[in-house]
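Homework help board

Subject: predicted structure for assignment chain

Our instructor gave us this sequence and asked us to write out the predicted structure in token form, then describe one feature. I got the tokens but I'm not sure how to describe them. Can anyone check?
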Amino acid sequence: MEAIFLPKSWNVDQILEDLDQHGFTLIDDAYPHNYIQALVAECTANLNHFRDAAIQSGVMTKIRNDHILWINEDLEHAQQHIDTLKLLSQQLNRHFYLGIKEVEAHFACYNAGEFYALHRDNPQQKNDRVISTVYYLHEDWQADWGGELRLQDKNEQWHTIQPKPNRIALFQSDLLHEVIQAKQQRLSITAWLRSGQNIF
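My token output:
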């Protein structure tokens, strides 16, 4: 198996500083173009396997209407992204003593008109999600296509993050955020760095 390294575009010092000061960071130009193409192809080839994310444990929720596909080892290219996040987790553990032990992830597809209302990924620390990440897969995105991530940072300042291609948004899982309604199909990988405890 090919060794996994953190890409040179991932400025770890900046990531750590941003998380410490604001609770979130952005990584632009995250991966080489040939990897993006392979990942987009893997995602789109499996779109017919996506399920309605609004149904959770058999119960319908009204706060989201996107579609998801949980990532397993059969999805080879997506697994490389998870492995890279595991490497980053080691850096976060050393710096913040987070005790991150695993990464869980799914592909997400927001078709035109789909959204995810205000929520927290770890409300009142009721689960072991410590850090949330969103990696934008689409190869083209225009500013008027919606689908932005709207996020309140740890200082209670609001930010609107454009879903630029090849961008990763990484933030504390207890921060309030939403996905603005998309006007075009928006593809991404959502991943959570998980620990048995939350320390921030």
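Reply (TA_rk): Your tokens look well-formed. For the description, you could write something like this. The longest strand covers residues 100-110. That's the kind of observation they're looking for.
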